[in-house]
Amino acid sequence: MNFQIFGPHIGRAAFAVCALILSVPAIADDNQPAPPSKQIQTCAAPSDLTQLNGALPRTARRIATNAPLTIVAIGSSSTAGAGASSPAASYPSRLAVELKERYPAIAINVINHGANGEDATEMMARFDKNVIAEKPDLVLWQVGTNALLLDRSLDEAGTLIMQGLDRLKRDGVDVVLIDSQYAPKVLEKPHLSKLRAIMAGIAKRANVPTFQRFEVMRHWREKAGMAFNAFLSPDGLHMNDWSYACVAKLLAGSIGEAAARASLTAQAGSR
User: Fold this and answer.
1) Is residue 231 predicted with pLDDT exceeding 70?
2) In the CATH hierarchy, which top-level class contains the domain 2-8+47-266?
3) Can you give the residue ranges of every domain in the chain?
C-alpha cells in the first residue's frame, strides 16, 4: 500500500505536545456499547512520552535537502489497520497525511507492509522482500505483541528483532520501534512486563528509538480518563479510527522533532 506525497518544505525545529481534535464515543462504562452521540476528544500526550530517545540522521538529511523520503511500516495487525473502518484509517495512511502537512515540498512514500497475526519470525521471513527491497530511509517496526498474545518465546522474538535491527543499521537505515498497545487483552498476559523489558533492552543495545505507544495509550486511559472503548475497537485489542489517527499525529511530531534535532546537531558539529 503506497502513498505518494508532494509539496514546499516547512521545517519544524521544536515539538511539544501534538494535538488533534476528533470525534470519539463519549462512553463512561467500558462494557457499554457506543451511544449514537459523540463528544470532542483531544489527541494529546506529554512530550516526555512522545519524544524519541534518539536521532534520525538519514531522515534528517532527506528532509533538510527536500530529497524524496521512503518510509516502510512493517508489523502485524496494528500496522495493517485491524479495527479501522478502512485502509485509509490505518496509522501508516494517516501518517502519510500528517507528514504531507509538515513537509509539502518533499515526495514522501509511506509503504504499509503490515500483516495480520504475524510475529517476529514471520516478519523476518519477509524482511528482504518487504523491507530491504524497498530501499527505505526510515523503518517503523511494530513488533513483539503477538509473541506475547500467542504465548510464544519472547526471548526468541527478541533475538530475531535484534537481528533485524542489525541488518537495517548496516544499511544505514533509520529505525523507530513501536511497542505494544495498552489494551485489556494485552494487559491480562502474565509476561507483559518481560516483553516490555526485552523491548527496552533491545532498543538500548541497538541504539534505536522507541515510540512509546503503550505509555501514550495508558495516558489516555489513566490521565485523560478515556474509556477503553473510546480508543479501542470492540475486540478489546485493536485500535480504532480515532486512536490510529492520534498515534499518526503524535508519531509525525516525534519524527519531525527527532529529524530537526539531528539536523541541529550536524550543523553544530560542522562549525
Assistant:
1) yes
2) alpha beta
3) 2-8+47-266
